[in-house]
């Protein structure tokens, strides 16, 4: 069940700036949304959260109207983040912490001799596990790392293993990752390499917290990482070839935009300030 969060004073003042007259027409929709996502609030917080939700809903509806007029190539939809301001969403979920100097690794360069197919869908080939939910934890780096490793394990074994993000959260701190406060995928791969393996989600289930000590069980190793390859930085051609020929690739996307928070369908061209690393 989703409970009300503790909000820093500065952010609370920003939230208070949201408060306007609530739209009575949306009362039924608001109650239905709360029921759908099991949302509960203290009485003093509900008005604030309702106003944030209404403002997000209006932005979503405006965007979708513009999409119907040909101004966008993707649609938005209300989801369980509907009561969060952009700042709150980013505090909770954007946990990518890049490093200035990469660990030594091999570099994947684009090859002029390599012909890239027009399209590749690793999902239909069995390389990709179902969509996961990181919860209120800045562990996106761990999910990105396991996603790439899961594809490689399938390529090697023909079996799709669901790997443990919690294993990476709890056990890769010594390499510089910081649990729910952020991390870097290369450090996660390096941990698996140095550790000689990692566990599956079944053995080491996800908790969306970073308060536990490392509980890796070498007797239940589900995957290993022998070599870390880095796609040549800034090369879209190298990234395209890696995705087309190797399998799912671990990338970091700036998801701080409202358009990512409520993305529903279509092609989001990432045309704002965000970048892919």
Automatic annotation (TrEMBL):
Residues 30-89 form the Cathepsin propeptide inhibitor domain. InterPro entries: Papain-like_cys_pep_sf, Pept_cys_AS, Peptidase_C1A, Peptidase_C1A_C, Peptidase_C1A_papain-like, Prot_inhib_I29. CDD domains: Peptidase_C1A. GO terms for biological process: proteolysis. GO terms for cellular component: extracellular space. PANTHER family: CYSTEINE PROTEASE FAMILY C1-RELATED. This is Cathepsin L1-like. It comes from Chrysolophus pictus.
